[in-house]
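Work Package 3 committed the consortium to producing structural models of liganded targets before the mid-term review. Because experimental data for this complex are still outstanding, the team generated a predictive model from sequence and the ligand definition alone, so that downstream docking and mutagenesis planning could proceed in parallel. The input record is reproduced below exactly as it was submitted to the modelling pipeline, together with the SMILES string for zinc ion.
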Amino acid sequence: MREIITLACSECKRRNYSTKKDKKAHPDKIEMKKFCKFDRKRTVHKEIK
Ligand SMILES: [Zn+2]
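The resulting structure, written out as tokens with the ligand in place, is given here.
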């Protein structure tokens, strides 16, 4: 079952990305390094509800 999740920047807390994940393969919250256009650098983006 793939669900749409939202990724928020851990520095400015903005919700920059949405993606899909397989909750069976990744039951824990995921973190991804992505470019934040507000911080103008790559930051850790964390899954939020
Ligand atoms: Zn940011």
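Reviewers should note the following from the model. The chain has one domain: 2-48. These observations will guide the Year 2 experiments.
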